[in-house]
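re the bet — no i am not wrong, look at it urself. input seq straight from the record:
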Amino acid sequence: MTIHLKHGRLIDPVSGKDETVDILIRDGRIEKLGGQITSEKSAQDLDLKGKIVAPGFIDMHVHLREPGFEHKETIETGCASAAAGGFTAVCCMPNTNPVIDDESVVRYVIERGRRVCDGIVDVYPIAAATRGRKGEELAPMAELVGAGAVGFSDDGSPISSAEIMRRAFEYSSMYKRPVIQHAEEETLTQGGVMHEGFVSTRLGMPGIPGVAEEIMVQRDVALLKFIRTARYHVAHISTKEALACVRAAKKEGLHVTCEVTPHHFTLTDEAVSEFDTNTKMNPPLRTKDDLLAMKEGLRDGTIVAIATDHAPHTIDEKEVEYAAAPFGIVGLETAIGLAYTELVDAKYLSLFQLIEKLSTNPRRILSLAPIRIQEGEKANLTFLDPSIEWTVDTASFRSKSKNSPFQGRRLKGKAVGIYNNSKFFATSSL
């Protein structure tokens, strides 16, 4: 299959390019790249005038639910959702059944990813850091890396034991894989359903204090100073105090990175006032000061990645009283629109910086090879239209679940297609 991409604006943080180009792709590889390329009769021409061509986006924090919770999501529906959202790769978290703490489960997930949705979306498993995600003994890290795991996390369950976290740092450092922490001091959060503060007091809801996140990040950074070869990544950071800890650690030269979700730079705890269970997530929606700190952290480079924490739940699981509902929302199909609207259109980030945080930086964190947009290289691309204005309609989501607080929200900027593994997927907009 030959595709001729015409007049697209290529923004590539790896090479530093920002220019209008034509790209000729033959059998999955970039054959020609330049200002204007002569069309071939056998090629499928796509006019990308006014659109952005970027290295394929990767979401480094996704819950695909398979194996074990296929009623919420499957690898197939999750990959379909990723493709529709503009992602050519996802990293799936290990809170499945069985847990991704064995090489056979890692291989199963990777193989399933290759077989669904024509294999257009690459699936990279994040393996459990401890057996069963129980925090009691390390998972077999060497075997898991050998099978294809790109990082370690007990996501949803913080690694509470300092001794276990120390050993996780030591062993993971041998394989240059990050330990990804759900930063929460659980003794402070038992029974909490939203951020602890003025709004939770007004609503009479049990709270989850921001200090619980800060304490865990502080402890982990202290351990990182002791094991300086380790790589530490804070998942879905949400408080300005935890962010300050990361900023200080980076200045000391420690291998620490963090990600933020679109909902944590878009919504505050005030959204809970309507008691919509789709505003219930962990970490919870925080204050306006925290939200602004997340945006500033993105702007100054302290936060190097945007990830969705895509967490599908069925309608019947969410349509209960707030306290009984599970934490989490879907995010793959709204991420780019929210990021463009809240960050680029609002002048916090340039398009170049946004693409770095959705493509280049996550791959660097996970020690994945960078995408090189040059002749002879495999084509792995995301196509964006920054001019599209659209309304979120959860009924049209490719995800099996529809649990989003953004239903009906008007957004600007959208992915209009992806190309990866010699496959092309386009939305109706392209």
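see?? Residues 56-365 form a domain with the TIM Barrel fold (CATH 3.20.20.140). told u. also The CA atoms of residues 103 and 144 lie 5 Å apart. so pay up
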